[in-house]
Amino acid sequence: MIYSVRFVFIFFLYFGMVLESKALDIQCPASISESSSIKNSPADWEVIEGLEEHTLDQVSIYLFHPSQKGTQVPDNVQRTKNEESVTWRMIRGQNDEFWVGCSYHNTMAILARKLNNRISKCVASYEISKTGERLRLKKVFCN
Predict the structure, then answer these.
(1) pTM for this model (two decimals)
(2) 3-state secondary structure of 37
(3) Residue whose C-alpha is closest to residue 114's, from 65, 75, 70, 79
Protein backbone atom coordinates (compact mmCIF):
# COMPACT_ATOMS: atom_id res chain seq x y z
CA MET A 1 0.00 0.00 0.00
CA ILE A 2 2.81 2.46 0.88
CA TYR A 3 4.55 1.65 -2.41
CA SER A 4 1.49 2.54 -4.47
CA VAL A 5 0.92 5.80 -2.57
CA ARG A 6 4.52 6.82 -3.24
CA PHE A 7 4.17 5.93 -6.91
CA VAL A 8 0.95 7.94 -7.24
CA PHE A 9 2.53 10.91 -5.44
CA ILE A 10 5.65 10.84 -7.64
CA PHE A 11 3.54 10.41 -10.77
CA PHE A 12 1.36 13.45 -9.98
CA LEU A 13 4.35 15.49 -8.87
CA TYR A 14 6.11 14.79 -12.19
CA PHE A 15 2.94 15.24 -14.26
CA GLY A 16 2.22 18.54 -12.51
CA MET A 17 5.73 19.80 -13.21
CA VAL A 18 5.39 18.90 -16.88
CA LEU A 19 2.11 20.79 -17.14
CA GLU A 20 3.50 23.73 -15.20
CA SER A 21 6.61 23.95 -17.37
CA LYS A 22 4.41 24.30 -20.44
CA ALA A 23 2.63 27.47 -19.23
CA LEU A 24 4.46 30.78 -19.41
CA ASP A 25 3.46 34.21 -18.15
CA ILE A 26 5.41 36.64 -20.37
CA GLN A 27 6.61 39.76 -18.55
CA CYS A 28 7.78 42.38 -21.03
CA PRO A 29 9.71 45.20 -19.35
CA ALA A 30 7.46 48.26 -19.02
CA SER A 31 10.09 50.45 -20.68
CA ILE A 32 13.54 50.33 -22.21
CA SER A 33 16.30 52.91 -22.45
CA GLU A 34 17.93 53.26 -25.81
CA SER A 35 21.13 55.08 -26.65
CA SER A 36 21.56 56.54 -30.12
CA SER A 37 24.81 56.37 -32.01
CA ILE A 38 25.92 57.92 -35.24
CA LYS A 39 28.13 55.87 -37.54
CA ASN A 40 29.24 58.44 -40.10
CA SER A 41 29.63 61.87 -38.49
CA PRO A 42 31.73 64.46 -40.32
CA ALA A 43 35.22 65.09 -38.92
CA ASP A 44 34.46 68.61 -37.69
CA TRP A 45 31.25 67.61 -35.83
CA GLU A 46 30.98 66.29 -32.30
CA VAL A 47 28.50 63.52 -31.54
CA ILE A 48 26.50 63.97 -28.35
CA GLU A 49 24.59 60.81 -27.66
CA GLY A 50 21.20 60.93 -26.04
CA LEU A 51 19.46 58.38 -23.88
CA GLU A 52 15.80 57.93 -24.68
CA GLU A 53 13.16 56.01 -22.70
CA HIS A 54 10.57 54.00 -24.64
CA THR A 55 7.41 52.55 -23.10
CA LEU A 56 5.94 49.16 -23.95
CA ASP A 57 3.59 49.18 -26.93
CA GLN A 58 2.66 45.61 -27.89
CA VAL A 59 3.76 42.01 -28.29
CA SER A 60 4.05 39.98 -31.46
CA ILE A 61 4.66 36.33 -32.21
CA TYR A 62 7.28 35.43 -34.79
CA LEU A 63 7.96 32.28 -36.77
CA PHE A 64 11.75 31.98 -36.45
CA HIS A 65 13.99 34.73 -35.11
CA PRO A 66 12.38 38.22 -35.30
CA SER A 67 15.28 39.45 -37.47
CA GLN A 68 13.78 37.28 -40.23
CA LYS A 69 10.58 39.41 -40.13
CA GLY A 70 8.23 36.43 -39.73
CA THR A 71 5.53 38.26 -37.76
CA GLN A 72 2.49 36.02 -37.31
CA VAL A 73 -1.05 37.27 -37.89
CA PRO A 74 -3.26 36.66 -34.83
CA ASP A 75 -5.80 33.86 -35.14
CA ASN A 76 -8.40 35.73 -33.15
CA VAL A 77 -9.02 39.24 -31.80
CA GLN A 78 -11.87 39.79 -29.36
CA ARG A 79 -13.00 43.08 -27.86
CA THR A 80 -15.11 43.82 -24.86
CA LYS A 81 -15.93 47.23 -23.43
CA ASN A 82 -12.55 47.65 -21.70
CA GLU A 83 -10.28 44.93 -23.10
CA GLU A 84 -8.91 43.49 -26.31
CA SER A 85 -7.62 39.89 -26.37
CA VAL A 86 -5.31 38.81 -29.17
CA THR A 87 -4.73 35.06 -29.68
CA TRP A 88 -2.06 33.28 -31.70
CA ARG A 89 -2.01 29.49 -32.19
CA MET A 90 1.33 27.94 -33.04
CA ILE A 91 1.11 24.98 -35.39
CA ARG A 92 4.65 23.74 -35.72
CA GLY A 93 6.45 22.15 -38.59
CA GLN A 94 9.44 19.93 -37.88
CA ASN A 95 12.04 22.74 -37.68
CA ASP A 96 9.76 25.62 -36.71
CA GLU A 97 10.55 27.79 -33.73
CA PHE A 98 8.40 30.59 -32.37
CA TRP A 99 9.53 33.74 -30.61
CA VAL A 100 7.71 36.42 -28.65
CA GLY A 101 8.78 40.01 -29.19
CA CYS A 102 8.06 43.05 -27.04
CA SER A 103 7.80 46.27 -29.08
CA TYR A 104 8.16 49.78 -27.69
CA HIS A 105 6.83 53.21 -28.70
CA ASN A 106 8.99 55.30 -31.05
CA THR A 107 11.75 52.76 -31.64
CA MET A 108 12.50 49.83 -33.90
CA ALA A 109 14.09 47.94 -30.99
CA ILE A 110 12.42 44.68 -29.96
CA LEU A 111 13.12 42.53 -26.92
CA ALA A 112 12.69 38.94 -28.09
CA ARG A 113 12.69 35.53 -26.49
CA LYS A 114 12.38 32.06 -27.95
CA LEU A 115 9.29 30.12 -26.84
CA ASN A 116 9.46 26.56 -25.53
CA ASN A 117 8.55 24.01 -28.22
CA ARG A 118 5.62 22.83 -26.10
CA ILE A 119 3.91 26.23 -26.30
CA SER A 120 0.99 26.09 -28.72
CA LYS A 121 -0.99 29.25 -27.91
CA CYS A 122 -0.36 32.80 -26.67
CA VAL A 123 -2.93 35.38 -25.60
CA ALA A 124 -2.18 39.08 -25.12
CA SER A 125 -4.66 41.26 -23.22
CA TYR A 126 -4.75 45.01 -23.72
CA GLU A 127 -6.65 47.67 -21.84
CA ILE A 128 -8.55 49.81 -24.34
CA SER A 129 -10.04 53.30 -24.16
CA LYS A 130 -13.67 54.21 -24.70
CA THR A 131 -12.77 55.05 -28.30
CA GLY A 132 -11.21 51.61 -28.82
CA GLU A 133 -7.55 52.61 -28.75
CA ARG A 134 -5.08 50.37 -26.98
CA LEU A 135 -3.92 52.01 -23.78
CA ARG A 136 -1.55 49.42 -22.38
CA LEU A 137 -0.58 45.76 -22.49
CA LYS A 138 -2.00 44.09 -19.40
CA LYS A 139 -0.84 40.49 -19.71
CA VAL A 140 0.65 37.90 -22.04
CA PHE A 141 0.10 34.23 -21.26
CA CYS A 142 1.33 31.30 -23.32
CA ASN A 143 0.63 27.59 -22.87
Answers:
(1) 0.76
(2) coil
(3) 65
> For residue 56, which of 111, 132, 100, 98 has the smallest C-alpha distance?
111
Reference 21, options 117, 123, 135, 125; nearest CA is 117
Cα–Cα distance between 137 and 143 in angstroms, integer?
Answer: 18
3-state secondary structure of 43: coil
What is the rounded CA–CA span in Å between residue 30 and residue 109? Answer: 14
Per-residue confidence in pLDDT tens, the chain, 143 aa? 443 333 333 333 333 333 344 678 999 999 999 887 777 888 888 877 777 899 999 999 999 999 999 999 999 999 999 999 999 999 999 999 999 999 999 999 999 999 999 999 999 999 999 998 999 999 999 99
What sign for the dihedral angle of Cα 65, 127, 31, 123?
negative
What contacts 132, CB < 8 A, 6 or more positions away? 79
| Measured distance between the N- and C-terminal CA atoms of the chain, rounded to whole angstroms | 36
Length of the chain equals: 143
One-letter amino acid at 100 equals V
